Amino acid sequence: MPTHLTEPGLPGILKKLGSMTAIRDTYLVEQSLLRTLGPLLGVLETSLYRVDDNGVVLRALHHARTMVTEEDGVQRVAERVEEIANDQNIPSAVRELLDNVRLLGKPCRRKTGNDLLICYPLRGGNELCGYFVFQRDREVTPVEDAIVNGVLEVFTNYYELLDTSQRDQLTGLLNRYSLETNLDRLWNLLSIRIHDSENENSRRDKTPKTYWLGVLDIDHFKSINDTYGHIMGDEVLILVTRLLQSSFRQSDLLYRYGGEEFIAIIAANDLESATLAFERARKKIEEFQFPQVGHVTISGGFSGADPRVLPQEVINRADSSLYAAKHAGRNRIFHYDTLVKEGVLKEVASGSIDLF
Ligand SMILES: Nc1nc2c(ncn2[C@@H]2O[C@H](COP(=O)(O)OP(=O)(O)OP(=O)(O)O)[C@@H](O)[C@H]2O)c(=O)[nH]1
């Protein structure tokens, strides 16, 4: 698909690369990559697919540019970025192309009507971590190919560096800094996902349209450290992380929020499913035999991650519920609204919570 927009030359691309590496948010860097490569290749639409270790698409980012004419007759470029949380809506032609790239380990293309659908692999180290896809009416020239490969390499190296700074070194989970800097973006994303799944077009989309935020905390962790030493304490933290990761879905988000405190943001259809998901995680840890230490339990509190409520308020609600769970004897996970209904927690006007 040819574009009628003015395309930047090499100085423009270098400037965009400079801007891309000035960004400190991994999601915005991904958008910036698409903004850089679209004009370079003379296409209006580009996509980025992120995959897990098994090649399953975790999310897709689509970027589209259009020329719009303002009321005063002035033309400007309008940009739209769309994020899809899973691989249910990937067109079959794209899916087949992604599979080819994964199998062959190099860029591939296939014909769709008069156009070519072209896909480049993204590599983090030697591992395939995603795909860059676009469609246009002509082949990629050797010069374009070299530039695309160069830009993708700068992108993946920079992305990895940023990603490392957003992760906790011990557990590999996203850290508190990353949660706090991304809360607003995350909240926007939740409202888009909820809006999308309510949309006529996404009727077949099985993604649950409600999200839940839980604060989970290891019980009596200080005494684990005191009895078995810090190294054993670290080992427990790593094992609890792995158990939580294997209990929640790949698409759920898990953060290390403090020393022995985690935040999980999970998708579930209703309160019953959310309760089951958090309970499954609690039980999984309760039933696990930790080397030397034996049994370890967690307590938690959770609340609906309603995008209309300020994110910090939702964290406070979950945190107060966690406090109530500790107060009630630990090894249990409480739901905020239920506690308010039962009169265990009182919601005060400011949004802060009093425990009776
Ligand atoms: N080994 C290890 N310990 C940590 C780490 N971060 C925090 N801690 C310890 O975690 C302990 C948390 O203790 P407390 O906040 O008193 O809570 P607790 O003992 O779990 O008690 P409850 O939460 O009330 O059940 C402290 O002793 C911290 O030193 C870490 O990265 N590794």
Q: What CATH architecture of the largest domain do you see?
A: 2-Layer Sandwich
Number of domains in the coordinates?
Answer: 2
SSE order, one letter for each helix or strand = HHEEEHEEEHEHEHHEEHEHEHEE
Number of helical runs?
Answer: 10
Name the average pLDDT. Answer: 87
CATH overall fold name of the largest domain? Alpha-Beta Plaits
| Strand arrangement, major sheet | 3-2-1-6-5-4
Distance linking N and C termini: 64 Å
User: Would you identify the regions where 5 or more consecutive residues have pLDDT less than 50?
Assistant: 1-6, 349-353
Q: Output the structural class.
A: alpha+beta
Biggest sheet, open or closed, and with what strands and sense? Answer: 6 strands, antiparallel
> Strand-residue fraction?
25-35%
CATH C-level label of the largest domain:
Alpha Beta
Going by CATH, the homologous superfamily of the largest domain would be Reverse transcriptase/Diguanylate cyclase domain
User: Which ligands appear in the coordinates?
Assistant: guanosine-5'-triphosphate
Q: Helical proportion?
A: 40-55%
Number of strands: 14
Radius of gyration: 23 Å
Tell me, briefly, the overall form: elongated
Detailed description of the structure:
The protein is an alpha+beta fold. It is elongated, with a radius of gyration of 23 Å. The strands form three sheets. It has a six-stranded antiparallel beta sheet with strand order 3-2-1-6-5-4, with helices on both faces. The chain has a six-stranded mixed beta sheet with strand order 7-9-10-8-11-12, sandwiched between helices. A two-stranded antiparallel sheet has the order 13-14. The protein has ten helices and 14 strands. 32% of the residues are buried. Bound molecules: guanosine-5'-triphosphate. The site of guanosine-5'-triphosphate (GTP) has 17 residues, from β8, α6 and α7.
